[in-house]
Amino acid sequence: MTKFQAEIDVMPKKEILDPQGKAVTGSMKNLGLAEIQNIRIGKHISLEIEADSEETAHAKVEQACKNLLANLIMESYSFKIEKV
Predict the structure, then answer these.
(1) What pLDDT, in 10s, does the model give residues 49-78?
(2) Is residue 57 within 8 Å of 64, Cβ to Cβ?
(3) 3-class SS of residue 59
(4) Is pTM, for the whole model, over 0.85?
């Protein structure tokens, strides 16, 4: 078995309102950073997985994202995997 490190980013879909991102965008103006706009806030997940191959690790991480880590109705995800 080989150990892999997965770095996963989960973000709200573009058509979904992001109240947290909107609040932070508004706060940027108060900090004198009005040129920073359209902030979207998501989550970053880091995990380790043991698998026979990178393809197997990729499939397992894909399954975890689809079934638990991302709400596919409101969020999209992307990830990269590296051998540890």
Answers:
(1) 999 999 999 999 999 999 999 999 999 999
(2) no
(3) helix
(4) yes
